[in-house]
Design goal:
By secondary structure, this protein is an alpha/beta fold. It is 43% helix and 14% strand. The chain folds into two domains: 4-66 and 85-223, Rossmann fold (3-Layer(aba) Sandwich), CATH 3.40.50; 233-404, P-loop containing nucleotide triphosphate hydrolases (Rossmann fold, 3-Layer(aba) Sandwich). Bound molecules: adenosine monophosphate.
Length: 435
């Protein structure tokens, strides 16, 4: 399969080549022809699957064709083009400001060789609204926005959605996770009824499916096999360790594995500050990546991270959402994510677009049960490892273990974290007894 065979115009093929995409990814192969044909699409696709180009390329092509058509029509009807404001043709709703920036950059890059320059507006909350309002003067062809800020701008009459031809919901599961259901509903009310809808989500929980079904009209389903299997080439590992040894273990791994870059996930802003400070003290170039840093500071950190000036980013889930770093060899879950969905999102930061990657989760005894639920959700058991010098001493509580055994599909999971000594003692006690 090639990009040419998907029916893309030369200007877009040129942009694809400039970005060094050699062959289309699975989601691109399936979605591009359907989107070109004007169909609705519902795609199971996580970050790293190439989903942005999967919708951007065909939408840019359709838009280009429409512009040409309109130009031909208006050349018959002389100079009616001059004072016309641009109408929002494509609206992309995204969950976070990071993602809106990234999608905007990708679209701009893919549109670079098109004969008619398009105006792309990237809009997000948490920043001053005035510059965004100014930028929207005269309209925009493509608007990429987080839902809350878009509503603010609509309330201020800074733009109109009545001419939107295509709506894209990007990372729809995340939009719902972040509580944007009401905002999305209000935005939908302002869109024309007849439009193309594209729906991308890494997971399809009942709530996500409900939203998709409410929105889509006979969609082409681009569901690429099972979620866990569909993850790019990501090796999942777990390391059992005591909570208070995690930072030292992290330092050990960073040095031992010689990762060029690593993204470390923690549960709180506080942890992101303390862990990154400890790494710095150990001589590692690390930074805390959390909501306390301004958007500008975070952008700066990402640039430094990509340029290998920072080796480790210690991030919270929200801040890390949408981070797109090509060639990220490893992700470490210092703290476990709250949900299986978050786990998939996190580990999907590595192994992107064909590259392989490693996702390591630290499992402290008290969170063993939580990780088993995550394993259950992805129907995959990841063997617990221990690292010499960092063997855990804490043991999973008996109650929790018996609950897990009752719950386990195989009739019982053994192997709560026990120290070597405990195992030896147990073995000695059992000697001579059957079973
Ligand atoms: P996305 O899933 O849109 O966040 O894209 C993930 C990464 O893959 C981005 O860095 C893209 O630039 C890159 N990418 C997208 N499509 C391709 C492709 N066909 N070949 C190689 N890389 C790609």
């Amino acid at each position: 399969m090639t990009f040419e065979s998907l029916g893309l115009i030369p200007e877009l093929l040129q942009a694809v080549a400039a970005r060094q995409y050699e062959t289309p990814t699975a989601v691109q192969t399936a979605a591009i022809p359907a989107i070109l044909a004007g169909e609705d699409v519902m795609a199971l696709a996580q970050t790293g699957s190439g989903k942005t180009a999967a919708f951007a390329l065909p939408l840019l092509q359709r838009m280009q064709q429409r512009i040409q058509q309109e130009a031909e029509e208006s050349s018959k009807d002389s100079n009616n083009e001059s004072n016309k404001a641009r109408k929002v043709n494509i609206l992309v709703l995204v969950p976070t400001r990071e993602l809106s920036g990234q999608v905007g950059q990708t679209i701009e890059a893919l549109a670079a060789h098109l004969p008619k320059k398009l105006k792309v507006a990237v809009i997000y909350g948490g920043a001053s609204i005035n510059p965004q309002m100014m930028h929207l003067r005269g309209g925009a062809d493509i608007v990429i926005s987080t839902p809350g800020r878009l509503l603010d701008l609509l309330d201020n009459n800074a733009l109109s959605l009545k001419d939107v031809a295509t709506l894209v919901l990007d990372e729809a599961d995340r939009l719902l996770d972040l509580g944007f259901a009401d905002e999305i509903k209000r935005i939908l009310e302002q869109l024309p009824a007849k439009r193309q809808n594209l729906f991308f989500s890494a997971t399809f929980s009942p709530a996500v499916k409900k939203l998709a079904l409410a929105l889509l009209h006979e969609p082409r389903r681009v569901a690429i096999a099972d979620l866990a299997e569909n993850l790019p080439d990501i090796a999942q590992r777990t390391i059992a360790v005591d909570g208070d040894k995690r930072t030292r273990l992290l330092v050990h791994l960073i040095k031992d594995q010689q990762w060029e870059r690593v993204l470390v996930f923690v549960a709180t802003k506080y942890a992101s500050d303390t862990v990154s400070n400890k790494l710095k003290k150990a001589g590692i170039k690390a930074e805390a990546f959390n909501g306390d840093a301004s958007q500008g500071a975070r952008q700066h950190m990402l640039t430094d991270f990509k340029a290998n000036r920072i080796q480790v980013l210690v991030a919270t889930d929200l801040a890390a959402r949408g981070i797109d770093v090509a060639g990220l060899p490893a992700v470490v879950n210092y703290d476990l994510p709250r949900s299986a969905d978050d786990y998939l999102h996190r580990i999907g930061r590595t192994g992107r677009a064909g590259a392989s990657g490693t996702a390591i989760s630290f499992i402290v005894a008290e969170h063993e049960m939580h990780f088993r639920l995550i394993e259950k959700r992805q129907d995959k058991r990841v063997p617990r490892e221990t690292i010499a010098g960092f063997e855990p001493t804490a043991i999973v509580a008996d109650k929790a273990e018996s609950e897990a055994n009752a719950d386990a599909p195989t009739g019982g999971i053994k192997g709560a974290r026990k120290s070597k000594k405990d195992k030896l003692r147990e073995q000695a006690a059992k000697n001579g007894q059957p079973g």
